[in-house]
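Reminder to self: tokens first, then the designed residues, so the page reads top to bottom the way the pipeline ran.
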């Protein structure tokens, strides 16, 4: 049976598209878009098809085909841009943004000229509808073509005209809203921000400061019978939404400026009455109350404003000390649509609250001090509210507000940009040791491993993010029991590659930061304490790097590397392969290094090396190598004589292993050790040691050395 052909205009258009060339398809889509009166679904479909044609056009023109933009005239451009009008539905505007972006990319300079002509023509017409469309277009394309839009925005006479324009009586608040949306977008550009500060600050202050209740009362006084319904033109009051938008713009202007010194009233050139200005702190309080009391309707404006205001340290402290606000912000983050500006804004606030100052090298600290001394006013002195103590306290309050489970949930659907902020927050929280266990319990480990694994490593933008995720993971695993963290869908082996990743230096950094290396070694040591499978994986993935770090010129790195080796050689397979098989030159070299480290100046390094030798001297080949090595027996006896009882314990254990070795190797070890004063040293260990287990080992060793067993 033959299928029934589709009917209706959409089906007809689709059928035609299959048979037409690219230019004819483009013209037909524009004809549909120009008709108007269509359902949103039809408009979105046409915009989507047009966007695809424009995206494909870039590749087609590279192959020598004629560009479809040659048939797109000014009327066609007007059609696309008018769909950016704020009075269109969100879904239509969203598709219009994609279509506009694709057109500007495909059309190049010609598209920029048509866009400029559209904007200037609409502004020149100066009608209610023209202003709305022009402002909406400018707000939308600022992120797409910032240089072109800023040029239009800064054209002579445009910004100075906005103040008088916004004070006119319009039939609705939409002109004001569209204008403020444009200014809000313009503040991303430094020159535009300066111009807004110069020409628009007064009426922005007027909008923010206006008391709507006073306006109503004054109007009743003038005309008791006046209709003062919400939105009335005669009332001339600004809606809450408009006030919120103006407050966001003001915050962006104020937040990037340094705090101004109070006026010098003794200076005769200073006016006696200073104009009132709204500070960032005042605006942040307004946004805070908005989010707490009316998050459903005001969350976008309040979050966007606070994302800028929370750059200031005073604002950070106020927000962090407000538990009600923090819980409201966590709730806002939890309910924000995935990949939305609201989600990104809420995450930005948490980043600002929790971010530590970058760690400085000694050289960088010296340079910073010199700069501070050179600055007479002391402006370069660090802000005490941003020191580690204050940041740590803020992190604790953010954690207590319950942000971690929400971060884990939203990370599953986040954009790369939002995921970057999530990782930054967790990295800051992991700085506090007491929070690492709870972070692991609430899913942070799985999140960090997943982020490191899934972020493309060939993208340079992800290099720093992946390293940050790995370092946060390392910190958490240093302070937690791996057996309680891993299992099920997250096996322990999944953590090894991220940790090994930060053993290596950051190629993008001018100077090497050793903290990630140290923390990675500590975390791997903790994992290597669990089982042989984990030790085997660590050796397979990272042994070359670990071996190199054994001789690093930093005692803390060397110690951490030796402690990791100490845990690795608890596996018989790895101990024999790496050290005990002395028929291999590499094994001989490694053993020499380990014995030498047992004589290092640093007590922690000696202890770690002694622990490794305690495991390895169970092998006859290792005992023989130590015995035959110059100063080998002396180094072992040096451990036995150490003032630190832990070190003494390890030395006695190694000695006992050596003298209990069977055959000729054991006989040679006993002879060598006795010739170096082992009996006297063991007697001294017995008399000066308080710990029973060490005394028992020393007594046993004495009996063997004296031939009493």
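Designed residues (709 positions):
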């Amino acid at each position: 049976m033959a299928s029934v052909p589709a009917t209706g205009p959409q089906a007809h258009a689709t059928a035609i598209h299959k048979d037409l060339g690219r230019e004819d398809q483009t013209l037909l889509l524009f004809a549909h878009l120009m008709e108007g009166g269509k359902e949103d679904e039809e408009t979105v479909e046409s915009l989507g098809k047009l966007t695809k044609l424009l995206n494909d056009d870039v590749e087609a023109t590279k192959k020598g085909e004629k560009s479809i933009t040659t048939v797109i005239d000014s009327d066609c451009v007007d059609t696309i841009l008018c769909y950016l009008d704020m009075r269109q539905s969100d879904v239509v505007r969203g598709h219009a943004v994609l279509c506009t972006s694709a057109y500007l990319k495909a059309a190049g300079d010609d598209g920029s000229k048509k866009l400029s002509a559209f904007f200037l023509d609409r502004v020149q017409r100066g009608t209610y509808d023209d202003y709305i469309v022009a402002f909406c277009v400018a707000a939308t394309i600022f992120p797409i073509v910032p240089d072109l839009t800023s040029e239009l925005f800064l054209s002579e006479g445009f910004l100075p005209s906005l103040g008088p324009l916004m004070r006119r009586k319009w039939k609705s608040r939409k002109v004001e809203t569209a204008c403020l949306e444009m200014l809000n977008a313009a503040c991303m550009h430094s020159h535009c921000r300066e111009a807004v500060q110069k020409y628009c600050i007064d009426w922005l202050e007027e909008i923010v400061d206006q008391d709507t209740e006073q306006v109503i009362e004054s109007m009743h006084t003038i005309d008791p019978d006046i209709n003062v319904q919400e939105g009335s033109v005669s009332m001339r009051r600004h809606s809450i939404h408009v006030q919120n938008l103006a407050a966001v713009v003001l915050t962006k202007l104020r937040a990037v400026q340094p705090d101004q010194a109070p006026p010098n009233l003794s200076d005769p050139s200073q006016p006696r009455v200073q104009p009132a200005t709204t500070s960032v702190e005042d605006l942040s309080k307004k946004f805070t109350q908005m989010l707490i009391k009316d998050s459903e309707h005001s969350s976008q404006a309040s979050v966007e404003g606070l994302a800028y205001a929370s750059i200031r340290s005073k604002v950070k402290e106020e927000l962090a000390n407000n538990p009600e606000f923090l819980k409201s912000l966590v709730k806002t983050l939890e309910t924000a649509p995935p990949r939305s500006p609201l989600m990104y804004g809420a995450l930005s606030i948490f980043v600002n609250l929790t971010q530590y100052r970058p760690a400085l090298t000694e050289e960088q600290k010296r340079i910073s001090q010199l700069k501070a001394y050179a600055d007479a006013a002391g402006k370069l002195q660090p802000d005490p509210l941003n020191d580690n103590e204050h940041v740590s306290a803020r992190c604790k309050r953010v954690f207590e507000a319950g942000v971690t489970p929400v971060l884990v949930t939203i990370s599953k659907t986040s954009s790369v940009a939002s995921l970057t902020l999530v990782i930054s927050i967790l990295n800051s929280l992991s700085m506090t040791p007491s929070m690492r266990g709870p972070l692991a319990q609430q899913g942070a480990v799985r999140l960090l491993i997943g982020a490191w694994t899934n972020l493309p490593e060939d993208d340079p933008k992800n290099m720093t993010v992946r390293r940050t995720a790995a370092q946060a993971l390392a910190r958490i695993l240093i302070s937690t029991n791996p057996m309680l963290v891993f299992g099920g869908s997250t096996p322990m082996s999944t953590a090894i590659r991220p940790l090994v990743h930060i053993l290596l230096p950051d190629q993008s950094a001018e100077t090497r930061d050793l903290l990630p290396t140290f923390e990675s070694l500590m975390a791997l040591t903790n994992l290597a304490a669990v089982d042989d499978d984990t030790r085997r994986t660590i050796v397979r993935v990272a042994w070359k790097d670990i071996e190199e770090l054994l001789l690093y010129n930093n005692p803390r790195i060397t110690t951490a590397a030796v402690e990791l080796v100490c845990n690795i050689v608890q596996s018989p397979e790895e101990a024999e392969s790496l050290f005990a098989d002395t028929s291999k030159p590499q094994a001989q070299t490694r053993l020499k290094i380990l014995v030498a480290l047992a004589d290092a100046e640093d007590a922690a390094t000696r202890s770690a090396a002694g622990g490794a030798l305690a495991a390895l001297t169970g092998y006859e080949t290792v005992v023989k190598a130590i015995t035959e090595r110059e100063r080998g027996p002396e180094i072992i006896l040096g451990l036995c004589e150490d003032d630190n009882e832990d070190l003494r314990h390890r030395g006695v254990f190694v000695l006992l292993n050596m003298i209990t070795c069977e055959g000729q190797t054991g006989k040679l070890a006993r002879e060598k050790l006795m010739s170096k004063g082992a009996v006297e040293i063991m007697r001294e260990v017995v008399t000066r040691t308080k710990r029973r287990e060490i005394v028992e080992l020393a007594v046993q060793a004495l009996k063997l050395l004296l031939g009493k067993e």
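The chain has 40 helices and no strands.
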